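ingest -> validate -> predict -> emit
validate: passed (alphabet ok, no gaps, 254 aa)
predict: started
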Amino acid sequence: MNNNQPLQTQSTLGAQVGQTPQVQPVRQNSMNQANLAPKKKTNSGAARIIVIVILVLTTVVFAGLFLWMLTEFNTLKADYDKEVAAEIAKAKDEQSIDDAYKCQEEKDFPYKIFAGPVDYGELNFEYPKTWSAYIAKDASNGGDFEAYLNPIQVEPISNSTVNALRIRIVNRTFEDVAKEYQRYVGNRDSVLNVESVTVNGATANLYYGTIPNTDLSGYILIFKIRDKTAFMQTDSVLFKESFEKIIQSIKFNS
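emit:
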């Protein structure tokens, strides 16, 4: 045998012993790591699906709530609009009734205020607003006061023309005027009657029948105002109703 051969073997071993052995990677671990990666991707995808499902369900729920609330709002608004419309219609009906009542009231009692001279007791009364008034003598310088009223326009002043109302305030006592008219009461030529009435709390004479010195049938009212006497006359029985309302509204300062 060759004596040197063992030495070589020992030297080779020594060299091998002195070197740090290299560790070879284990294939099984690499395979395990490779197998773990797909599992992580699978878990992440499932989480995403869950989140998406939750978001979709949440959206659906909120959309449903929104639609429900919108439906309720529209229903409430429709009911409210109906109530408002009903109230408006009711108010319009009430206003229409009120307007109709006022219109009828104006037709039934469409009066203005007539005012006489302040120095002559300030005679005033209500008369139809469709009548015209004409002041013939205003007594601004003393003397008699004269006024005429008639529907639309006053007719020319004469003993033969008809006006709805003639007014005079004269500087004569009530007793003198009443005595003058008494001559015509029961007269065959002028059938005139008289009755006592109250005007503004004072006693007055109301004559009716044929108006003296005319062919007209009407009414004459005489009453005392301070130291003077007032005449109010209608030339036709057609104005009887208006004349009676005028008498009821007479006011003056005694």
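Residues 6-18 have pLDDT under 50 and may be disordered.
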